[in-house]
Predict the 3D structure of the following.
Amino acid sequence: MIRHAFARAYLGLILIFLYAPIVVMAVMSLNASEFYALPFRFSTEWYERLFTNDEILAAAWRSVWIAIVVAVIATCLGTMATLALWRHEFPGKRLLQALLFPPIAVPWLITGTAMLIFFFGVGIGRGTPAVILGHVALALPYVIVTVFARMQSFDRALEEAARSLGAQPLTVARKVILPHAAPGIIAGALFAFAVSFDQFVVSYFLAEPGDSTLPVLIYSAIRKGFTPEINAVSTLIILVSMAVMVLAARYAKFGGTR
Amino acid sequence: MADGGGVPAAVGHGVLQPADGCAFGDREWAFTFANYAQALTNPTYATLLWKSLKLAFWVTVWCVILGFPCAYILARMIKGRAREVLFLLVILPFWSNALVRVFSWAIVLRGNGVLDRAVNAISPWEVDLNLMFSDTAMVIGLVHSYLPYVILTTYLSLQAIDDTVIEAARSLGARFPRILWRLILPLAMPGLIAGAVLVFVPVVGSFMEPRLLGGRVGTTYGTLIEDQFVAVFNWPLGAALSFILLAVVLVILAAASPALRKATS
């Protein structure tokens, strides 16, 4: 029993370590003092200022629509790739599967600078199209892994049954395979959205100055000095990405129960 | 897979561009090793690479020390709904914006900041606790960012351990420390190593965290590369430095790949 109490206390400490700074930031975004002075006085001034700051609003809007576009493209490409990897044996399949993981393991700094040089080399240059292409590349492995994990539990006898009852291949895909894959596809799309929405490093190298996403704008704002406005916008970002992840977790059921 | 074209482009850029550093101008492409020569022989660069490796080492050590007990408790001492919720809570910050989380540490750690005040409110004597812009601040911020990786991978390998094996050891009279040392730790090793690699690799290339939490002492190999691309505009040198970093990372990944394969199978 003592061991369990100790274990619970330890988990509590880890959770405090993980969440305390975020809570402090959220609280300070509601503090009236510009210099984070205590005692705490409640104020929504920083949020009000946020919603009149055109630069931040434009960047926020850009971040959201880029993330949506990335989620759509990455989910379509990723789902098709997963179905191909799952259904068919073809030469080079193992190599392709192995190549899916380095983008997760290589530091983003290298990926970002390499993409910057690559996009200049092929003539796309900096800017939103480069950001979208870069984010799609980063998000694809996450989509494929998520959808593939879901397809592992598909009973192929179902497909056989549908086909023997006379269903055309497209009907089988639409009525049998896709409904089974749906939770995985939704989770994959949410992962892709989160990867893009939270992505800083790659956006930082690929975004055009003055045309940046929210994290890039925050980075340059922090380097100029802290303001409670940054707390406010950061708090909102954390809330959005955590909400997306809670949703994704409900579909993907990672962690599992035993 | 999809960014496969990017990395070879970086190699090419490191070798092909004129050494006086203009990014894709009208200039003729010329083959040179001068950028690599400069990147490899400059003692400052070597010092910074060593510093980044040391930083990554300490961050990894702390993540493993803090993460293993956490994963053990989650995987083997808590069951059912509570486990699902706690697991999600541990993993959730990892999926939220890394930049924003580093910024939140800046507010906590700075002089006269929240931590400083909290400690002084309890402590009977005056403590000057300004951790901001120090190596400690960088390690704290990076451990915070990457701890969930180690917990996740270790959790997965701990969960796969067959309960009957541990029962058998216990019925043969083994006590908990012995079971931990001889049974659980070896079986969890692939997960621990996978987690350690997933922490070490990105931390070697980190630049935003050292920049924001380290201030002037936060110059690392990562910030050096960042500067080549956004401040000095010496892309060829930046590409050469990136590629050297990539080579270091690949060597580490290759060394750990047997363990990684075990952990993912």
User: Anything to note?
Assistant: Residues 43-76 of chain B form the longest helix (34 residues). Confidence is low (pLDDT under 50) at residues 1-9, 16-23 of chain B. Chain B touches chain A through 77 residues (CB under 8 Å).
